[in-house]
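Final paragraph of the annual report: two paired records, presented back to back.
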Amino acid sequence: MCNQDEIPPGLKGSEPTEKKYSKEAQDETESCEEQKELGALNTTISDSTKEALRNWTKHDDTQETFCELDDDNSSECDYVDLLLNPERYTGYKGPSAHRIWRSIYEENCFKPQEDESTPYSPQQSLAASYLKAVYIRSEMTGLCLEQRTFYRMISGLHTSINLHLSANYLFQDKLGFGNGKWAHNTKEFLRRFDPVNEEQGPQRLKNLYFAYLVELRALIKAAPYILEEEFYTGNEEEDKDVKSGVRDLLTVIQQAPDQFDESKLFQGDHKEAKKLKEEFRAHFMNVSRIMDCVGCDKCKLWGKLQIQGMGTALKILFSGDQIGPHSTINANQKKKFQLRRTEIVSLFNSFGRLSSSVHSIEKFRHLLS
């Protein structure tokens, strides 16, 4: 978190306002001190970054979104350097973490009629028993393509987060303290994804690839639009480097074949399709709200960032003059479609996290071979 007087007006677009940043109390008793230390946000920001973010103002039009967008000018908004707060193991676990994911799946994932033959097992952990039940339900007849898509995207996000925790795991030192080294934890990976330990592990990995392809398709569609963005922060040299890097990335991405066809979704009867789309959007926005209840600051940061990135991807896919393969959105359509700076930032970071997770799978395969 950065102090108000350190935030350039170019980013916040308003006068500094004094505010406090309070941490939510942890319900966990196990490894409490470790959780607080590993889950705390690094609140420092470099002098060069402070200077680079001076003089930025921009008006954003209200758009239909699939995620809850925070108000940049709100006194509750804090600015954080993501490079100083990497997504990795924080020690946040137990009933509190399980409740978050249980709420996401139970309250927001589409489900067919209740299947009494799939009870939750008291012998299993809340998360394990519930996720298994939800997965079985998601594969039942009665879930349409849109509902299965929603579930697979949420599952893919969950898988990605678990992979980052496994790939950036803090090993204890010889004295048993959590100040050892950060490395890939193959035992943790196998516990979460090996079918011997977790029956649905391989399917969850497939859902990760699915979420990756959805966001890849969104970037391909929005590439002409994004290439016309200014990426303005006030530091001319850094702005130039960012725009060059984005152009290089999108040039590579645009060469990839489309693997996801959004035109297959929300078809059929117009009224029913519109109703389903609104329900789809409402569920997704509620997931973003649930992320606010995460008791670990760093976990909350990355959870909200990635769910907003997914929401931005969906906004792109279902916007523009055309929907489906080979359709694009360009700068000439800005009267009908706009992306806020925070949406573009979250989309790139979310796609980066999914890409990193895909790479981590290959790394684990190498370590386990």
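The closing record of the year follows.
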Amino acid sequence: MTRRGEEKRALILSTAADMFLEHGYDGVSLDDIIKACGGSKTNVYSYFGGKDGLFVAVVERLCDRFLEKTEKSLDLSRCDAAQGLGRIAHSFLQSLLDERHLAFLRLILAESRRFPTLGNAWYTRGPGATCAYIAAFLAAHQAKGTRLSANPEVAARLFHGMVLASVMHRTLATGIRPDNAELDALVRDAIAVIVPAVDAGTPS
């Protein structure tokens, strides 16, 4: 693909993401997207295979950006396991509770039954990728001698479920976001489960 083609593909993705998040899948047509960003339907079919393919590509890109934001913003090189888990959790929670991300999750829930590949794409590049990120961090500290309550992969899944999944489910179901004190307590409790107290510092 030429540079111009890559730029056009990126523009279509960005435009479609904004429109799908605001109006839902059924509320947006390819004509609407093309009108907003220029180009032609030929571009969409060439790059994505049609509206369904574009929708899945949007989901994959939004998932990737969620993880990229944390990876680029955190410096965990001087953190012990407890401190690093705290920073990772708060970074993920900040993104998770952003209104745009909540709209993204509602879109996934609304459309995943219609598109079998959508749920898999979201899980693989969303929760699956964040669990892998946490597991890699824990594995690195385990190799340095840090004791964990389970192997890194299991510990990552437990931590992810206790912190991210629980907050996501509550917020989506009730519309009520936990306040900072609740989030701090939740993260501290989850860290205490994963890292034995003797090895846990003060998370920041």
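The chain has a mean pLDDT of 89. This concludes the annual technical report; the extension proposal builds directly on these records.
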